[in-house]
Amino acid sequence: MNKALVLSVSLLLFAVSGLAEEVAPVDPKTAVGVDGLVRRLERALNDKDRETLLSCFAKDAILVDPPEKGVRGSQVFRQKSLESLLQLTLSHRTTEAAEYVMIDGTGVFTLRQDEDVADLLLTSAIRVKSVRDIPTTVGWCDRRFAGTVFENQRWRMCFSFPCFVESRVVVTEVSPGTQAARLGMRKGDVITHHLHMPIFDSEQLVWRARMFYDEPPERQLRVLVRRDNRLVPLVFGPGEMGVKTQSRFEGRVDTITLMGVQAEGHPVAKTIARYHRALQRRDSAGVIATLCPDGFVFCHGLPSAPTKCVITSRNATEMVPQELESLEMRVKLETINVSDIRMIIYGDLALAGWHVSARTLNGDTVYSDVVACLVGNEDRWTIVGMPWQHNHVLGL
Q1: 331: helix, coil or strand?
Q2: Band of the pLDDT at 5, cuts 50, 70, 90?
Q3: Do residues 73 and 67 make contact, with C-beta atoms less than 8 angstroms apart?
C-alpha cells in the first residue's frame, strides 16, 4: 500500500472539528454512545463525508504518530496540521478501491467509561472492496489508545496514541488446595485463553467462572497458559480456578521494557520526577512545563490526580491550577510519593507506569497506579495523555 496513504489515513483518524452533525443525541452514560461514534467514523471514511468525519472529533483533538522508517522523531498533530491531510486522504485515488473497517474496542473489557469521558482500544484496518463477496484485508492495520469525551451532546474523539503493547493477565497468587494448585499453575504464568476465548483482562476470568458455574462437574474448560515462552494446556472444571491475577501491558518484540534501576535512570523517569515535584510544590507552571508543548489531552484530569475534568493544552493555564486546588482539598500534596517506575519504550514513544501514595487530610494513606503516554525529543520527554488502562500495570 502507498506509504503516503498509510500516513495520511493515520492522520485522518484524528481530525478536528466543532461542526454539528444530524445525528440524534446519545446518552453519555451508555457504551452505545461510544460505539455509535466509532460507527459514524467508519461510515464517514467510507462515504468520503468530510463534515460528518470532522464532527466525530473534539476541537482540541490530538494524534501522536510514530516516525516513518528513515525519518527521525515522532510527531504530535493537532488542528491546522491535520486539515490538509484530511482532504488529501478523502480524495486519494487509492481509497476508491478500498474500504475502512473500525474494529472498535467498546466491549465490556476494552472500554473504560466514567460519565462523560471514556477510553478505548481502537483497531482500524483497510480492506479491498468485496470481490465475489469475499473481502480481503490488505497491508495496513492500526491499533491505538483513544480517548473520547461527550461534548455538545455528541461523543467525540480527542486523543490518540499508538498501541505498541499487548494486554496480558498474569497469575500473582495460587491458593493451596484449589484447582489451579492441583493442576500445577504457578505464580508468573500468563493466562492467554479460556475455552478458546483470548484473555486480556483479569475481570474476564471472574466473568468466565460465573458463566460456567452451573455446568456439570465433568465439563472440561481448557485453559492455555504461557510459561517460559511455551504454551501449557490445563483442563479445569466448573467453579473457581483458585488464582489471583493482574492485568498488565507487555511490550511487543520491537519495544524495550525497563524496570527497577534501569527505569529510574532513564530520562522518562526524570520527567516523572519533575512532574511530581511540581505537584508537591503546587507549581502550576512547573506541571505544565512537563507536558508536551505540541499538545496534550487528559480526559480524566492530570496523571496521579484524576478528577474527571478534561485538560488540554488550550485550557491548561486555567484548569491546572483548579486541578491542584481540588487535589489539595483531598490530600497533603507534600506527602506525594512515587515508586516502582516502569516503562515500555518504542523509539521515541513511551508508556510509563508508576505507583503513587499520599496522605489524606484525615491522615489516611491512598494509593494508585498510573499509566501515561510520553513523547521524547533529544532526551527531553514530555507527557501527552493517559491511555486506556483498566487496572493495568506495565511489564510482566
Answers
A1: strand
A2: very low
A3: yes
Instruction: State how far the Cα of 171 lies from the Cα of 241, in Å rounded to an integer.
Output: 11
pLDDT at 243 over 80: yes
- 238-270 burial, b at 16+ Cβ within 10 Å, e below that, comes to bbebbbebbbbbbbeeebebbbeeebbebebbe
Q: Where are the domains of the chain?
A: 3-163, 166-250, 254-394
SS3 322: helix
Q: Answer yes or no: is pLDDT of 13 > 80.
A: no
pTM: 0.86
pLDDT value at residue 2: 44
Task: Specify the CATH number of the domain 254-394.
Answer: 3.10.450.50
Residue recorded with cell 478536528: 16
As assigned by CATH, the class of the 166-250 domain is mainly beta
DSSP letter string over 242-257?
-EEEEEEEEE-TTSEE
